[in-house]
Automatic annotation (TrEMBL):
All residue ranges annotated as the PhnA protein N-terminal proteobacterial domain in the record: 6-52
SUPFAM superfamilies: Prokaryotic SH3-related domain
High-level lineage: Bacteria, Pseudomonadati, Bacteroidota, Cytophagia, Cytophagales
Gene3D superfamilies: SH3 Domains
Protein's name according to its UniProt entry: PhnA domain-containing protein
Pfam annotation, one family: YjdM
Amino acid sequence: MSVASELEARSESKCELCQATENLSVYLVSPGENETLDNSILVCGKCQAQLNESEPADPNHWRCLNDTIWSEVPAVKVQAYRILHGLRAEGWPQDLLDMMYLDEEELKWAQSTLLQDGEAVIVHKDSNGMTLANGDTVVLVKDLDVKGGGFTAKRGTAVRNILLVADNAEQIEGKVNGQQLVLLTKFLKKS
């Protein structure tokens, strides 16, 4: 059975991103050289044109990803993540990214080709896997001893207007008791 036939069976002959039923073709979710059932998805002509950038991006077309993010197919979730990540400046895609669940392997795959100014994008996630952004408010989920500060930052303390550490996805900066601290994201919860 060919990859295209297997994809048609898996998707019930619908685009795996927007559910359209016409002009379907196989799309390879990079990185990868050979189309397999695990690294390919079935897409319609409109999705294909936008993914290949042969047609101008239409953010409203991608509102269909509201349902797609719940797919059980890793390649579909990875491609949805990449599309939403590219559109996050629109506002609504960030909400979907915050709701979306990818396991560690899927997240690594999704982020493997995300580039910003020629460098890989670092995504900061809190202890619940929610994506953090500059200016967010977070809450400590554990009492933390502040070395050199002479105090303990108590569980439940709100840290407002955080700054993401650009080269480390596990750290943010924020003020606690008037002191600027570097905090580990695994001890924080987005509020």
